[in-house]
Amino acid sequence: MTDIKNEMDSDLDQNYSLNSNADPKNMQELTIYVQNLLQNVQDKFQTMSDQIITRIDDMGNRIDDLEKSIADLMNQAGVEGPEK
Which GO terms describe its molecular function (predicted)? Predict the structure, then answer.
């Protein structure tokens, strides 16, 4: 009996995914549709968050490299760097 229910839930999940044009007809279908919608939003948010963090890390690395290059150029020119 549990297998039948799981199979029905799986079928409902597929029928009422975000890519489906089927409209939910009852509370169970609506619940599944909303759960799929929220999961999709959460997945997209996580992907965007990961991309932003990666870009911030890359920018931090570039800034560190730039600071090192400036310090090297200042040393080569014989100019003292700012005191820290």
Answer: transcription corepressor activity
Residue 15's nearest CA partner among 35, 1, 33 is 33
The letter for the amino acid at 40 is: N
Contact status, residue 24 vs residue 33, Cβ threshold 8 Å = yes
Which of 56, 83, 84, 81 lies closest to 70 in space, CA to CA? 81
φ/ψ of residue 83, rounded to 5: -75, 140
Element (H, E) at 59: helix 27-77
Q: How confident is the model at residue 3 (pLDDT cuts 50, 70, 90)?
A: low
Answer yes or no: is pLDDT of 41 > 80. yes
